[in-house]
Give the backbone structure.
Amino acid sequence: MDRRPFWQRKALAEMTTAEWEALCDGCGRCCLIKLEDPDDGAIEHTDVACHLLNEKTCRCRDYANRKARVPDCVQLSPENIAGLNFMPPSCAYRRLAEGRDLAWWHPLVSGDPNSVHEAGISVRGRVICETEVPDEDLEDHIVEWPGEDGTEP
C-alpha cells in the first residue's frame, strides 16, 4: 500500500473534492487585486484584497457564493490551474501543477493550520480592503512579496 500523502500519489484531476479543497493553505494571496501590464502581460500583485477576504483568517467570507458576489473571481480547477499565471508561486495548486511538492509551511505538511501565517506566507496583517482604495490608486499598492514562494534557498 502506498503510504505517501494524497497530493504525492494523485494527479490534481484524480483528487476528491475534499482533497482538492484541503490543498488550499489559507494564505489569501489569490484574493489580492492584480494588475496586468497591457504591453507585455506582466502581472503585478497589490496589497489590496477582495472585499470578501477576511483579513484575520485569510479565508473568503462567502466562499460558497463568491462567484455570484464577485463575478471575476476565478474558480480553480485541475483543468485551469496550469494556465493561471497570476497565482502566486507559493500556491499549493500551482506548485503541484508545476511538479513541485507542498512547502514545509503548508498545513497538510506541518499539521498546523497556523504555520502558513507563522511562516509569513499569508496576507494576514499586510492588506487593505479594495473598498478603501480607488482604482486609480491601485498602482501605488504594488508589492513584491506575493512573488515569494516561502521555500528556503
